[in-house]
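Archive record
______________

***
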Amino acid sequence: MERLGVPPDELARARDTLHGMGLLSATGAGGPLVPVHPELAEAVVVAPLERDIHEHERRIAHVRGQLHALLPVYLDSAPSPHPPDGTRTIHDPEEVRRQLAAAARRCRDEAVMIQPNGGRDTDAVRHTREWSLALLRRGVRMRVVHQHAERASLATRAFVCQAAEAGAEVRTSAEVCEYVVVFDRSVAFVPQAPEDGTDGGAAMVTNATVADFMHRRFEDVWVLAQPFDPREAQYEKVVDELNRTVLRLMAAGLKDEVIARRLAISTRTCRRYMKAAMAELGAVSRFQAGARAAQVGLLGAPERQGRPGTASV
C-alpha cells in the first residue's frame, strides 16, 4: 500500500467495489483475492439483472395486453361527452381513429364514405381500410366514392379489388367534397379545418338529423359517379366527364392550379386536358373555350348513372 501511495481506507473501498462487480474473487477461505476476466464477471453479475428486466418486460406486456383487450368494451359502452348540439370536435388524430373504430363496430346496416385524393397520412388510410374490411366481414353494406384520379393508383386499385370481393360498392367522380363517412345515417365524421399548419382532427356528428342530411348528400354524389372496376383503369369511361369538369371550372375563372387540386390531378395533366378541350372547340382562349362549351351544352350536369342503392362493383 505504501508503494502505491494510496491510503488504506481508499484502497479498501476500491477492493470492495471491484469485488462487488465480480472483478475480484477469493481463491479460498481466507485466501488472497485474484482478478477475474471481465467477460466472466459480466456473465455472473449482469445475467441476474437481465433476467429481472426480461421478467418486468413480460409483466408489462401482459398488463398492456389485458388493458388493450378492454378498449373495445370501453369504447362501445362508455357514454361519449357529446355537446347538446350533437357535434364533438376532436383535435387528436389518434382519438379520431379510436372514435371511428368504435362507430364502425356499432354500425349494423350501412356505411358510406367519400374519399378524396391526397391530404391524408398513411396511418389514417391504413386505419380506414382496416375498419372498412372489418365492416364488410360482418356483412355491413359499404359504398365508397373516390375521385377519378384514383383509377391510376395501383395501391388504391389493389385495395378496392380486395374490398369489392368482400362486398363493397365503389364508384369514382371527377370532383368530390372533403372526406366524409356516415354510419347508419346516425353518426358522421368530417375533417377539421387545419389550424396552425396541423391537421388530423375531425368533427364527430351524432345529431341524427344532420347525419341523415349528410347521407342524402352522399346519395347525390353517388348517383352521378361512375362505377369503378378495380381490375381496369377504365379511363375511357371518365375522360368525357373530366373534360366537362375542366371546361366548367375554366369558365368559372379558376386558375390552373386550383382546378388541378380540385380534380386531384397534376397541374401538367390539367393543362393537357385544357389544351385538348380548347383544340376540340377551336378556341384560342380560356374565355372563348368556356363560351363555346356553354353554347354546345357541354357545361351541363352529367347524365345520372343510376339510382341510389344501385350495385356498382
